[in-house]
Amino acid sequence: MSQRPFDDILSLLADLPGPDAGAEESARAVVGPGMGRLADIAGWTAAWSGRPIPQVNRPILALYAGAHAAMSPHGGAERERLELVAAGGAEVSRLAAGQGAGLEAFDLAIDRPVPNILEGPALGERECAATIAFGMEVMAKQPDLLIVGSIGAGAALSGAAIAIALDRADAAGLDPRALHAATRVRGEGSPLELLRQLGGREASAALGVIVAARVQRTPVLLDGPAALAAAAVLDALVPGSVSHCRAADFDPFGLAACLDAPPLTDVRIANGEGAVGMLALGLVRAACSLAAPQ
To answer: pLDDT by residue (tens digit) across 57-79?
Structure first.
């Protein structure tokens, strides 16, 4: 039997590892309930790192840069932004340096924007599957905490469209173009088909790295609509598959409903470029410091 493009990702999703309940219990006990959400954060980090005294020493921010014809016909703005991030001149670059976090920014064919999702699918099956696989590659660096974000204005439109298509959001409060795109694909099939139709390269790569992080039992912070859309697609496909993830910031699209806990912050930096992820990283590290016995 010939293999279909999504078979590899479906195979990984069929056998996902779970959290270390003992490590979580130990960390929560040390922090104590008096510290509120810090106990939850410490317990979550311990559960997915497998260490009762969790630490974050090798955080990596993965930024996936892509362009959408609906927003940027030539990808020029995305190219400029990616180059600024890579040169260390962007806000997130400075925040990552201050946190001692690795920053990996990936050019997902910016000069070849995905087609307008209001008119047709963003990607073919094979390109979507290949982009999912490409997204996984950053996990070869073995971070002990991963922050996932994106570069590109199209992620907000595609994220809103995915939220509507998954019945996670009230379309009345979102971009009406997102409703148009979501209506075009209703009843089209599996959540992966919704990703292919609406998500573009950023969300596809984000989905890949989220799955790879789960396989390696690495906690993940999600920053922005592309990362949250990828998580929502995964949860719709396999409930519980994103329990190793937390949202870094307030989610205006309703995509974070798939997660077990509210966002770590509420600073409402909407671009999803990882700046909020860096702030949330500081909170995670503070929680982990409380889990270390005196």
So the answer is: 999 999 999 999 999 888 899 99
Delineate the domains of the chain, giving CATH numbers in brackets: 57-283 (3.40.50.10210)
What is the pTM for the complete model shown? Answer: 0.96
pLDDT band at 2 (very low <50, low <70, confident <90, very high): low
Q: How far is CA 287 from CA 38, 165, 257, in A?
A: 5, 36, 23
Contacts of 180 (CB under 8 A, 6+ apart): 118
Residue 264 to residues 38, 135, 287, Cα–Cα distance (Å): 10, 24, 12
Give the model confidence (pLDDT) of 154-180 as tens digits: 999 999 999 999 998 888 788 899 999
- Yes or no: say if 146 and 211 are a contact pair by the CB < 8 Å rule: no
Q: Which two tokens stand for residue 292?
A: 């270390």
pLDDT in tens, 223-252: 999 999 999 999 999 999 999 999 999 998
From residue 112, alpha-carbon distances to 79, 116, 136, 260 in Å are: 11, 12, 21, 36
Active site residues: 273
**3-state secondary structure labels for all residues of the chain:** CCCCCCHHHHHHHCCCCCCCHHHHHHHHHHHCHHHCHHHHHHHHHHHHHCCCCCCCCCEEEEEEECCECCCCCCCHHHHHHHHHHHCCCCHHHHHHHHHCCEEEEEECCCCCCECCCCCCCCCCHHHHHHHHHHHHHHHHHCCCEEEEEEECCHHHHHHHHHHHHCCCCCHHHCCHHHHHHHHHHCCCCCHHHHHHHHHHHHHHHHHHHHHHHHHCCCCEEECCHHHHHHHHHHHHHCCCCCCCEEECCCCCCCHHHHCCCCCCCCCCCCCCCCHHHHHHHHHHHHHHHHCCCC
